[in-house]
Every structure is written in structure tokens, then in C-alpha cells.
Amino acid sequence: SLGFLMSPLPSQLEGLCSFLQLSTCPEHLLVRFCSWLLILSPELSYTSAATLAQQLFLRRVLSLTQPPSRHLMAALTSFCSKYSQPFCRVLVAAVLQEAGEGAEQTKLVCELVEECLEPDSVRLVLSQVLEVPLSEKLLPIVQAVLGRQVRAPLCPHEVLPPELFDLLVLTLCRQAPAFSTSLSYARLVMAVLTTYHSQVS
């Protein structure tokens, strides 16, 4: 029932997802399921949305070795349009913790940051990135966040809050020795200086 989906125990919802084989269902059906989620009333609870984000997308995203299909991208975009905060808590956190290069996963997060996520979720992604040691894999995500800031004069709600900006600058300064030969890091620092020239001495 719809009432069950609103506030089930995580284990109950995981069991339902397993029964329906949602983690492995064909991607065109995943799009339909996510479209159906958008019209649920009342909305899913945060816990339910986080559980569904894990069940629907985690395995698919972490196993990407090439760009996501248009069906998977449509499903991700649909889900993020309403439940971006729990999505970021589940999926972005998993991408950050994943060992290795994770090139496709990084590209996917960048695309979501640039095109899909609301400003509060973009800030959440940046705060998640800054909680872990920076790596070459993560620099493009920070660059994608700064790309949103370029549009900030036209969209004031996009601007980073001072405490998050200060943390970004502090992190870049502290970890500079590890990127002494990195062109990506140099481009990122230049982007910060360009975007926030009036705030950086």
C-alpha cells in the first residue's frame, strides 16, 4: 500500500525492493518506477527515500564502466528532482569511499551537480567531498561545484555560505603539497581565485 511506503522500517522496504528485484530490474522499468515515485502523496520520508536510493541505484552506479544509459540517467534525474538530499547522502558518499579511479562515477556526480541538483544539494556534495582527503578523482567534482558559482551573480541562492567557502580554501591550502605537479589542482585553484577574487587574498 502507499501508506506502507511512507514510513516502513528500512528492513521492510529493503525486503520489498528485494522481492520486486528493483536493484536489477531493466532500466526502462526503473524510469517508470521513479516517475511513479514523483506522484506519491504524501512524499516519501527521508529514510525511505535513502533506502530506495540505495536499492535502486547504488549497485548500478558503482558498477559503471562506461557512461550511464539514457534510461539510467533519466531515472537518476527523476529521483534527484524530488529526493536529492537522501540521494546525495547515499550515492555520493559511496562514490567518495570507493577505491580506485572511479572515472565514470566521478563524471556522473559532476553531471548531476552541473545539471540536476538544487543549490542546497550542491552544497551538500561539496561538504561531503571536503570531509575526505582530496584526490585527483575528486577534483572534477569540486570544479563542477565552482562552475555553478560562476552563475551565482544571476542566481544569488547558488552562492556558497562563508563557512563552506572557508573550509574549501583551507582544504586547498592544506593539501597543496600533495598536488604540486597536478594540472587539475592548478586549474581548480585558478577557478577559486577567479570566482572569489574579492574574498581571497
From TrEMBL:
Pfam families: FA_FANCE. GO terms for biological process: interstrand cross-link repair. InterPro entries: FANCE, Fanconi_anaemia_gr_E_prot_C. Gene3D superfamilies: 1.25.40.480. It comes from the Eukaryota. Residues 5-200 form the Fanconi Anaemia group E protein C-terminal domain. One of its GO terms (cellular component) is Fanconi anaemia nuclear complex. This is FANCE protein.
